[in-house]
Design goal:
With 313 residues, the chain is of the alpha/beta class. Helix content is 42%, strand content 13%. It has 13 helices and nine strands. An eight-stranded parallel barrel has the order 1-2-4-5-6-7-8-9, surrounded by six helices. The radius of gyration is 27 Å and the shape is globular.
Length: 313
């Protein structure tokens, strides 16, 4: 274009023609950039967000939620991380959500198990990773009191199918032997995005999980002002966050601050706080709710639900 202009600079018509070509080229480039930008925006809009992102937005005066630790613990004849236990609790607390632990067998099958070994919760012994899933089927699950049941270690995909069929929400705790991408793939394979949220423990895990699955709701660690600030300055939208505030009480001001961003709060009452509630005739559960706790992660789902008024009855 510069060459043409210099070669024929004495010809006014040619000069005008060159300017016209230059204008068309610039407009064309601008349109191409606009198309790229529009394409990027369209890609963002095509993400099918989990229904939980909308369902778990903070709303003032919303009913409290019971999160059942390990699918149900300390229930006679109902072992933790079993479909049968989840179904049993669900019958009494249909609004409950269920925390489950996902681990991997020797042959890369995803199953529900909290410990690295089979000894505490089943009739098997040794490391889970030493067994193929077909070998696990020889064992039975035991409850917290040593009672052997007829229940088996379940496949994660079977739990996903059951949860999807019954519209039961699962909070998925991923064990170290399993990658977050593997679990997300399993959730997508069963089209269970609307009933699953992923538990993360630090900002790095949360960022990685969001990058892998921007459509999913995440339980993120916000135990103090510093962790909350990290999250608020991360790439994760606040709408994708459910804030786990730890297993110790925070101040009412902190809960309210988290909620001011549209984020529900979770308090892990499992352990000392559950014991404290039991010693005071369950009254603390209601006090903690009034302080700003939205979700109660507990080993005492029936007692907590009754105290908070969320039982089926």
């Amino acid at each position: 274009m510069t060459f043409i202009y210099k070669r024929f600079r004495g010809n006014q018509s040619i000069k005008h023609l060159c300017f016209a070509f230059l204008f068309i080229a610039l407009v064309s480039c601008k349109n191409q950039n606009t198309n790229v930008s529009s394409s990027t925006e369209a890609e963002k809009e095509t993400i099918n967000k989990s229904a939980l992102i909308e369902a778990f937005k903070y709303q003032p005066n919303a009913d409290p939620i019971i999160s059942v630790h390990r699918g149900g613990k300390s229930i006679a004849f109902y072992p933790e991380n079993a479909i049968e236990t989840i179904a049993h609790v669900y019958q009494s607390i249909p609004t409950a959500i269920f925390e489950i632990d996902v681990a991997k067998t020797k042959d890369n099958q995803l199953v529900l198990l909290h410990d690295n070994t089979l000894d505490r919760t089943s009739t098997g012994t040794g490391k889970l990773t030493d067994y193929r899933y077909s070998e696990l089927e020889a064992f039975y699950l035991e409850d917290d009191f040593g009672n052997v049941t007829t229940f088996k270690i379940p496949l994660f995909k079977d739990v996903l199918q059951w949860a999807k069929k019954n519209n039961v929400v699962l909070t998925v705790d991923i064990k170290r032997s399993v990658s977050v991408e593997t679990v997300i793939d399993a959730i997508r394979d069963e089209k269970a995005e609307d009933v699953c949220l992923i538990i993360t423990y630090d900002i790095e895990q949360a960022e990685k999980a969001y990058k892998a699955a921007p459509e999913l709701l995440l339980s993120v660690s916000a135990r103090n002002e510093k962790e909350l600030d990290w999250l608020l300055h991360s790439s994760i939208p606040t709408e994708n966050m459910l804030a786990f505030t730890g297993t110790r009480l925070s101040s009412e001001a902190f809960y309210k601050k988290v909620q001011s961003y549209g984020i529900k709060t979770i308090l892990g009452t499992l352990g000392n706080l559950d014991k404290q509630a039991a010693s005071k005739k369950e009254a603390p559960y209601k006090v903690w709710q009034e302080m700003g706790v939205d979700v109660f992660a507990t080993d005492r789902p029936f007692a907590a639900a009754k105290a908070l008024g969320v039982n089926k009855q």
